[in-house]
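WARN retry 2 of 3 for item q-0093 after timeout on previous attempt; input resubmitted unchanged.
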Amino acid sequence: MTEVPTTLSEWTYEAISLLAVAGRGESDRHDFKGGLEDSDRTSRHCCAFANARGGFLIYGVAQRAQGHGWDVAGTDRDEDFGKKFADKVRVEPTITYSAPELVRVPNSRSVIYLIEVPKGDLRPYVPLASSPRAFWRRGVGGDEPMSLEEIRAEFGRYEERREKLKALFLELLHDRDGLMEIGHHEGTYGQGSYLIIRLDSAVLDRLLVDSYSVIFSIPELARTLFDLRRGLRTVNAIADQSLARQSNPNIAYKAGGEFVDFTRDKIEPLIKLIDRATGILEKSFGLKNPF
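OK item q-0093 returned
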């Protein structure tokens, strides 16, 4: 049996032609299309792939009359193909897919467009345009409605991921409060001394690992959280040095003030990172500040 490519780079004109000759216009991992379809069908295909193992939509391979084989003739080149595809994908939650890859048809000006829809981290996905709305998954014969058991299992996994994101959200709010406290509490040595505050970054470290796949589905969130973790570690390193100095009776009274001086220019940028991260979590997952 002709194998279905598993990466975009493997989808050559030769690979597409072999599948066409074999009569394999679709599988649980690919679907041949003559051209762009309406929003309803495009959204359904994307949801089906994202709810299963992921797969590839191949545009420019049309089924012949009466379903007798496939014509690998390609389609007209269109600089706006990616935008037109994106305009047709209306699903909830937002789906990730590749930019269109172009395969040239030999001895022709026509091209074939490839789009990969990976297995989604926020599944289950549902088309917004479908009526009636349904959850779809990709099977050997194409798009198939998900069973009640499959839907329950996916929602169970979704809720588990969401609980971890809630914990992350609350930890970010806690770190924000801790940063705001720096320089506002008098230390043991009276006026001019300050309390040395060490922020707990262990919870953030663990949640970044536990929620890795979901966080990395939103690149801006991932970058923000890793920048934040780096900054919190810097503040904690300064706190550790200040606490060590505080153990020396001769300079202990200076340690808190030095800690505040060294961290003063770091607090505002870190608070901005936290506000950006919590804003993304609120917008993408509907999380709210419970306090």
